[in-house]
Amino acid sequence: MTNPTLLRAAMAGLVLGAASCGLSAQVANNTPGNLVTNGSMNFSGQVLTGWSFLNPAPNAEFWNSFQNQASPDGGSYLGVQYLATFAPRVNVGGVTQLISGLTAGAGYQLTFYSMSNHDGIGLQDWQVTFGSNTLTGAQTIPNANQTGNWVQSTMSFTASAATQTLTFLAQYLPGSVPEMLNLDGVILTQAADVPPPVTAVPEPETYALLGFGLLALRLATRRRRPSDEATVAS
Q: Residue 164 in contact with residue 99, Cβ under 8 Å?
């Protein structure tokens, strides 16, 4: 059985080689307004900075730029392999991050890249949860080794609190064994075209009823005045 630690070390070496070949651009990390820390999925040694693994067990496996296929975001990326039939090996399951600085009621747009690679068979996707909302990203394309077929997903969410958790859970469809699902270029920004909450305004029919009521009250007051004056005079 292959040692996961040795696998991670080998992949880290490949990433360093990729950086020296000009694959060091980090689009997500340089995107203005991106609320995600390390959206470019950079590693510091064996630590994926800014993120936590869903399965934090020491033996849970992940990959740093599996097969070194270039990403649209540039640089390194996270890979999670389907290991259900390879017990006792397990994977990290996915990643999560706490996002702060949100505006409750405002809209947010999330984009990210995903890719399957290993044997070129099977389909995968990322199940994304932001706060209490869960959406599924685009399915990956069957990808033979070294072809680098990345797909981009775009999602819209509405924040319900100033701080929410963003989670990516790897999902493997039938025939995926032992495919790798990769993630990169995660960008979360506030949607500029979402207007702020507006106080409810009464309908025109409400104004008409209100006006009719005020008019009726005024007429009733006028009718009472003569009888009131007669009472005072007597």
A: yes
